[in-house]
Each structure stands twice: as structure tokens, then as C-alpha cells.
Amino acid sequence: MSTDSLTASASLTGDEPWLALPAALAVPPGAGAVCDEEGARKIGRGAAEGIFTTGPVMVAHASLTARRLGISPPPRSSDLLDVLELFAFVRPAKFCAPSPTGLALAMGQSEPKGAEAQALALRVAATGLLKELADPAYPQREDAFTLNETLSRAGWSWSWRVAGALQHQPLRARAHRGSGLDVWSRLAEWEDEAPRGEAGSAPVDSESARIRLEKLLQASGLDETRPTQSDYAAEAAYAFSPRNEEGRPRVLLA
């Protein structure tokens, strides 16, 4: 569903207080950018560190952002909003690479190139996710509201914005309201077994393992080299090579 259709269906004006977002900060390797109501712009490392530590600010993967800035991971704070947490709430069990690029791709945007584009994509993603919650067609809105109440008591930084988005449309009354963490109580019991597979080997050579790791990093928006991890992937490939004798599997001690 596009952002335009979400806005129309939920009758949003754009002036809702829960849509007033702080600046979005992106710090890909060797660069930094911030995006606020005035647009996206490049910033230096010192400015990026200042925005990150003083807040309020939106990021993707707070711990990784801190590591790239060369500082200790920050404590949980109402001024630090990790958009990855919002994505996990709005789209549970859906995949998203932990980066601004990953969020953009998961939200159906084109791949953002450069720090400024990533900061803008981060802000667009956060806005789009909140608008999804405001859409009357969002599934199990009452359950989401109950879960958000539990997260609010734990100090979740997104909670009041999420509550505002969910209450933009009337919520149905619930006879019993738990913590929102007992999802299994509403699922029908079922059993399943995976089909039996064919015996065989699917070896991966060392160079292919290195190439695949590089492509995975690029697809996740992590345009950085990881020589140690690449060496490990190449060595680990040995353990998956076909054995020469029965009862003597390949073993790698790491």
C-alpha cells in the first residue's frame, strides 16, 4: 500500500502531533547526513555525534550508529528513536536489513545512494510506518494497541506516537485486555512436518562464500569491507564440502 493511499484512507491532515518527527540521522561508513523538516544535508562526524547524543533523533540500529561514531552504545532514552523497532512493531515477522537502506527497500522505496538519501529514506520510512498504523485496514489494531500499552510501561520511545496513530481511527472495545504478549492464545492449534529431502551434498567453495558475503553486505546497505568475516566464511565453507569416507565428516574448529 502506498503512502498516498494510506493518507487518503485514514483522512490524515499531516498536522497530527504523532507525525511530528525529530531529525533522522544516517552515518554510512565515511559519511554522515541528517534530514529534518528543512530537508537532508551532509554533516561532519562531530555534528553527527552531537545530534546522536543529545537528541531527539531517529536512527536505524542505534548500536551500529554509535560504533560508527566511535562512541559507546547509548542507554535507552525517549529521545532516541530507532526506526527498526518501529518496523518490527508495525510489520511483525517481516524481514528488514538493519540499515536505512534495508528499511527503504522493505518499505518499497528505491535504494538510497549516499548519506543524504539514506537520511531522507529513514524519515520517509518512519512516517510511512506510522501512517500504516493509522489506516483503518491495519490488521488487529486493538491487539497492537494493547501491546503498545505494555511497551509504554517499559519506556518505549515510540509508544505515544504509536498510540496516537492507532487511535486516529476508533478502536473496538475489548472484553479482556491482557498484555498483548499472549498471541498464541488466539491461534488455532496445528501440526506440520517438513517433507523428507533427498540425501546429497551442496558444496560451497571458499571464493563463492566470500563473494556471497560481499553481496549480502551490499544488499543490506552496509558498504564496508569485513576481511576477518570474509576469511571466516571462506574457512567455514570447508565444513560443508562432501566427505570422502563414510563416518568421517568434515570438521572445522573455530
Condensed summary:
With 254 residues, this protein is an alpha/beta fold. Helices cover 41% and strands 7% of the residues.
Low-pLDDT windows of residues: 1-10
- What distance lies between the first and last C-alpha atoms, to the nearest angstrom? 46 Å
Q: Give the helix level as a range of percent.
A: 40-55%
Q: What is the β-strand count?
A: 5
User: Which structural class should the secondary elements be placed in?
Assistant: alpha/beta
Strand content: 5-15%
Order of helices and strands: HEEEHEHEHHHHHHH
So how many helices? 10
Please tell me about this protein's structure.
With 254 residues, the protein is an alpha/beta fold. It has two domains: 168 residues, 2-Layer Sandwich (Nucleotidyltransferase, domain 5); 51 residues, no CATH class. It has ten helices and five strands. A hairpin with a 6-residue loop joins strand 1 and strand 2. The N and C termini lie far apart (46 Å). The N terminus is likely disordered.
Features of the shown structure:
41% helix, globular, Nucleotidyltransferase, domain 5, 254 residues, five-stranded mixed sheet, 7% strand, alpha/beta, 10 helices, disordered N terminus
